[in-house]
Write a structure and sequence with these properties.
single chain, mainly alpha
């Protein structure tokens, strides 16, 4: 049960920011001695690369419309990261539990990513930048918190991730009109450049 919870919570965090999730898990595994963190995530080269990419995402995520372009590219990266983390947590042996945890991580990452991307495109319609920066910082704090909690207390982390995911899905439904406005604004922004 703990491996499923750890995978679900890590998958949710990967859907928001895959690089920060891998960085937090890897650092906790390496320096806090958390045995559940796969060794592949603790490697120095992995930590350096995801550290740089997490830094890039931190800044790109604060700029209206650039965040949506980054999310578009991340649509291919975040679910794969969630699936890989799930497979590594299961031991990556290719058996049914590995495939099941990879599916849990990948699908959870995809759903949380789509919700985040939808909400961010709706937030981009706000004329001031503080909403965008506030949403981004909230996501950053949530990813670090849930990923950290997941390796220490997987079940509570999974419950928190599930509640946040459900709440943001409901919020996304209410923000649908603003999402359409955001897509039009993003197309106009891309056409200017």
């Amino acid at each position: 049960m703990d491996l499923v919870a750890l995978t679900f919570a890590s998958g949710w965090a990967s859907g928001i920011n895959a690089y920060a999730t891998v960085l937090v898990l890897g650092l906790l595994g390496r320096f806090a001695g958390i045995a559940e963190v796969p060794l592949g995530l603790q490697r120095t080269d992995v930590l350096i690369v995801v550290g740089i990419l997490a830094g890039l995402e931190f800044f790109a995520d604060k700029i209206p419309y650039l965040d949506s372009v980054w999310d578009g590219v991340s649509t291919f990266i975040r679910p794969i990261a969630g699936a890989v983390i799930g497979a590594l947590i299961a031991g990556a042996s290719g058996d049914l539990p590995t495939l099941a945890l990879a599916a849990v991580g990948g699908v959870t990452a995809l759903v949380s990513h789509l919700v985040k991307a939808g909400l961010r495109i709706a937030i981009n319609t706000s004329p001031e930048p503080l909403t965008n920066i506030g949403a981004s910082l909230t996501g950053d704090v949530a990813v670090v918190s849930v990923a950290s909690l997941a390796v220490l207390y997987p079940v509570p982390a999974a419950i928190i991730a599930a509640v946040v995911l459900l709440a943001t899905i409901i919020l996304l439904i209410f923000a649908f009109t603003r999402m359409r406005k955001g897509w039009r604004a993003l197309r106009a922004w891309l056409a200017k450049d």
